[in-house]
Amino acid sequence: MGLSYQSKLVALISSVFISITVCLYYVLTLSLSESNLRDIEKQLGFTSTLIDDQLLDKTEDIIYYSTQSSSISQFSNQVPTLNQERMLLRLHELANEFRADRALLITKGLTIKSDTYIQKNSPQNFPYPDIRDHLETNSAFQIVLPMNDVIYHWVIFPIQSQNETLWLAFGNEIDKIFKYALDNISPLNINLSFAYEMPQSHWRYPKENFRLLGADFEHAIQKYLHHIDEKNATQLSIRQGNQVVFMLPLIQSKNSPKIVAILIYSFSESFKPYLTIIYKVIGLFLTAFVLMATGLILINRKYKTALLAIVRFVEKLNEGDYQQRLPYHGKGVISQLSTLLNNMIAKIHLREKELLHKTRYDPITELPNKSFFIEQLTKILQAHEAKQLAVVLVTIHRFPQINHALGHRVADRLLHHVGARIVGAFEDASFVGKLSGNVFAMILTDVMPSDAENISDRILDLFENPFSVYTVTIDLSAHVGFSFYPEDGDESDILIQKSDVALFKSQSNAEHFAIYDASSDPHQFNKLSLMSELKEGLQHDEFLVYYQPKVDLKTDRIIQVEALVRWMHPYKGFMSPNLFIPLAEETGHIKKITAWLLNQTFAQCALWEKANIPLQISVNLSVKDLLNRNLLKYINGLLEVHHINPNNIIFEITESAFMQDPENSLGAIKKMRNLGFSFTIDDFGTGYSSMSYLKNLPVDELKIDQTFIRDIAQNTKDAQIVRTTIELGHGLGLVVVAEGIEDEAAYELLKTFDCDIGQGYFMSKPVALSELEEWLKTSRWGLPTISHK
Ligand code: C2E
Ligand code: CA
Ligand code: CA
């Protein structure tokens, strides 16, 4: 675990602080030590000469004063008469007068008659007989001598008492003289001590002091003292580290003990004033440091609180709270950050709203899209908001055609208008959305299957008036599919899917609306199991080919049959192709059906060719077949097996199948036509019907979709369309087929329209081969008499 931000900061500052202090200390000591020690040496040398001078001054003062002072002469006269006590008293008075620390009265024989140091005088000898030489001169002199372990500077001069010469000695403690001098003259703090020689060259000095200086010093000092004669008593300074020892030999008389003043200067002493500065600086630093640390902690705490607030802010953001704002305003970093975050969140909010809108709304109609619709339906179903409801899907009739003819810009605008009309008219709808391309969806609550027709009428009313988009006016109609809750399911996916099935049904049956009907729902079976059953069914002869006659309307005789597949499911029973063909196309299983069917029809064709029965067979091809690279090879193989004339086979393809991949489809069609096969456009009118494509499509027939044919006799509009289409087909050199003829009226009408071929229940439903053969014999549209063979 790492240190906290706060501890790191404190550690950093303390280390900076410590390094600064250490640096300061070293810079000061380094700069002080060398130069200062040299200065100090000089000062000590200077001090010693000053002391010498002072001693001399003192001597001269005393001597001069002694000649002037009447007290000396009075004392000289009184001496013979004074008893010990009185003499000592007088001597004290003199010592006071001459400001001496000690006074002695000495005889020529060096007996001390009186001594102010010793209160009760008993005659004693002066301990340095060597001074006799001085006494001989009969004049004043100075000398430094220790007495009673005290070193004195003595000024000794003769006095005349009756017939005897006596000597007065005034002594001043040399210690005091030095101290006075050092205090007044030198600012240095110097440790002063003295060493003096005792009999047998034995030196007395404060050993303890020197020992403290260290063995090297002591040794050097001893060496100096013992060789002081030879060196002729010169000064000496010894330096080591922070210490300087300065030795100063004091004025000597021959044969008197040698005395040396030892001045010790410790550099650390001189460093003291600086140390106090350093201490002050350290103190200042320390105070500053404490203040800073406290400040830091406080600031840090402030930042920590702010950062924590920001963390909480971001957490809430994560949970989707975009309303919150950070409360920091101003110029600080936190405030800037908080302003940035606040701005950012506002932008994110806006962008998310936009994004959400994009993911939930269809950009063309601005209506809720499929996922939003499902979400809403799920909500309503889960909340049990309604006891019953309908999922209503609305699609525009022949919208792909319109899209193609008018272009996407107009078509998109049109979708927008349709959406707006639906929303405007169905204020009672719980929700309106757009599921896909041109499929609108509505949730209507509290309605049941019996309301479907009513609702469907309301929807179709919306399409009564034409739509005008830009400058174009467009007539539209619609298909409506219904599924109901709870009848068809209680899940949104299922309800939508079932409504979609119903919508598909209404489109394929050309009805205005359809209600979901389980019995005709191709999706009601499990897709996967159905498709695996389909594979098995093909192997187990569960499939049959039904044939539906196509009649030549000029001769009223059969000319073609359309081959339509049938599945006798072992336990689901008879299955309409509408139940499995779309699924087989979706899953690619159609290729197997097609292969099977082609084999069957080619074989049948071969039989009819052999029997001279002039029947062409039309076979439906899905887009998957058309784009199947192996199809051509397969058909070539079949041709080799069955030896049929390709002119007898017509392939039916729908426009929408073709449009899925026009380029490759075109290639396949061309190759097959080169082999001699013909092509029909199936379900013409329900797909794109692009005239430009139609013009270039290499087909032979046009099969008008049954939705146009069925009511042709009743519906003049349809009749008009069919008539025009027939003319158009002929114009393009195509054979025109009408599919879905259910009554005579239609049949007759189409004849008058000059339609070439007719197909429909009126003539015959698709039937099994045996039934067809019967029909061929008995029907009024049966084969022409074989006579013209
Ligand atoms: P389609 O190709 O349009 O076939 C014509 C459909 O219309 C047939 O339905 C036929 O029974 C029906 N029909 C013909 N005349 C009339 C009429 O006068 N009134 C009414 N109401 N219906 C009529 P079917 O056989 O149920 O086939 C439905 C669809 O299944 C076919 O439509 C076709 O797209 C597909 N299909 C059928 N067999 C095959 C096949 O072998 N291969 C492929 N690829 N599709 C097939
Ligand atoms: Ca067909
Ligand atoms: Ca058809």
UniProtKB/TrEMBL annotation:
| Domain called EAL: residue spans | 527-780
| CDD domains referenced in this protein's UniProt entry, alphabetically | EAL, GGDEF, HAMP
PROSITE patterns in the record: EAL, GGDEF, HAMP
Question: Which intervals hold domain GGDEF?
Answer: 387-518
Task: Drop me one GO molecular function for this one.
Answer: cyclic-guanylate-specific phosphodiesterase activity
What biological-process GO terms show up in the record? Answer: signal transduction
Highest taxon of the lineage? Bacteria
Tell me if Ion transport is a UniProt keyword of this record.
Answer: no
What GO CC terms are in its UniProt record? membrane
Keyword check for Iron, yes or no: no
Cite the InterPro entries for this sequence.
Answer: Cyclic-di-GMP_PDE-like, EAL_dom, EAL_sf, GGDEF_dom, HAMP_dom, Nucleotide_cyclase, Rev_trsase/Diguanyl_cyclase
Q: Which residues form the HAMP domain?
A: 301-353
Residue ranges of the TM segments? 9-28, 277-299
From the UniProt record, list the coiled-coil ranges: none
Write out the entry's keywords from A to Z.
Answer: Membrane, Transmembrane, Transmembrane helix
UniProt protein name: EAL domain-containing protein
In its UniProt entry, the species of origin is given as Candidatus Berkiella cookevillensis
The encoding gene is cph2_2
